[in-house]
Amino acid sequence: MSFDTISDRGLVILGCGRMGGAILQGLLKGGLSASSVWVVDPHPSDWLNGVGVHLNSELPENPAVVLVAVKPQMMAGALPQLSAMAQGDTLFVTVAAGITIEGYETMLGAQTRLVRAMPNTPAAIGRGVTAIVGNPNATADDLDTAEALMGAVGQVVRLDNEGQMDAVIGVSGSGPAYVFHLIEVMAAAGVAEGLDPDLAMRLAKATVGGAGQLAEESDESPSKLRENVTSPGGTTAAALEVLMDPETGMPPLMRKAVAANIARNRELGK
Q1: Which annotated residues bind NADP(+) (predicted)?
Q2: Is residue 74 part of an annotated ligand binding site?
Q3: N or C: which end of the chain has fewer CB within 10 A?
Q4: What is the pTM of this model?
Q5: Known binder of ligand: residue 224?
Q6: Residue 17 annotated as binding?
Q7: CB hemisphere CA count around 39 (13 angstroms)
Q8: Are 10 and 60 contacting, i.e. CB atoms less than 8 angstroms apart?
Q9: Domain range 175-268, CATH class
């Protein structure tokens, strides 16, 4: 399936909040015609009016793709209206957390062609990373289509199996929140040492943003980059001795945080 097929048969977006809207904007910027997009959202954002998409209007009978972007708790009420589409060759791509492939197949039917995708919030600025995995009915072309769709908002990786999705959610799906909290606590530490709050926040944001981009673009590993900054017996080494403590530092805290994330995600999926 190609974007030509999407242009011919249409893309339906179920729920166009922050993530669905980011994906739509990325697709439109990438050249997808607004006239080939149908959006179903009871409370659409103002920017959707006048963009040229079909907003809350009659849907095509056999669209190429349905992008499911509603909240998990709304899924049971929203999906049945599209179940007829799952009987044909429409590809369903979902970006909702917590619901398994089996759950979607229960709501839509075992014959559904489905790709489960997990993006993160930097998708809003085209810097997201999305993990995708298909059900047994999804073809190689379906995975290519899902990758092209999600590629509109950043990088895409393919998983070997759905069992890896919990860890993806724990690391990259929720990961931006961990980084935002790091910015908060770095700025607060600067204020505690006498910096103006605005200056401390500016320094923390720029430091985390710059370091992240350097880690992505450098050929050196994060470990090597860390070592490059750390002089033996110096100030950075003193700080890292605290942060890297195997009992009280960041390694055990991050393991506990990701494990708690995964446990909660599995509870929500039941």
Answers
A1: 14-19, 69-72
A2: no
A3: C
A4: 0.90
A5: no
A6: yes
A7: 24
A8: yes
A9: mainly alpha
> What residues pair up with 14 in beta bridges, in sequence order?
40, 68
**269 known member of a binding site:** no
18 assigned to a ligand binding site: yes
Three-state SS for 131?
strand
Does 14 belong to an annotated binding site? yes
* Other Cβ atoms closer than 10 A to 124: 18
DSSP result, 60-101: PSS-SEEEE-S-GGGHHHHGGGGGGGGGTTPEEEE--SS--H
Longest dimension (CA), the chain: 68
Q: Give me the amino acid identity at 234.
A: G
Say how many C-beta atoms besides its own lie within 10 A of residue 226's C-beta: 15
Query: Is 149 annotated as ligand-binding?
Result: no
Q: Which residues pair with 114 in a beta bridge?
A: 92
The response to whether 154 counts as a known ligand-binding position is no
Q: 236-256: per-residue pLDDT in tens? A: 999 999 999 999 999 999 999
Tell me: domain 3-162, CATH 3.30.70.360, correct?
A: no
Distance, CA of 68 to CA of 46 (rounded, Å)? 20
Residue 69, marked binder: yes
Q: What is the pLDDT of residue 1?
A: 52
Question: Is residue 19 annotated as involved in ligand binding?
Answer: yes
pLDDT tens-place string over residues 17-59: 889 999 999 999 988 999 999 999 988 988 998 899 999 999 9
In the three-class reduction of DSSP (H, G, I as helix; E, B as strand; rest coil), residue 155 is classed as strand
Instruction: Tell me the DSSP string of 201-212.
Output: HHHHHHHHHHHH
* Residues 48-90: tens digit of each pLDDT: 988 999 999 999 999 999 999 998 888 888 888 888 999 989 9
Which residue intervals of the chain bear CATH 1.10.3730.10? 175-268
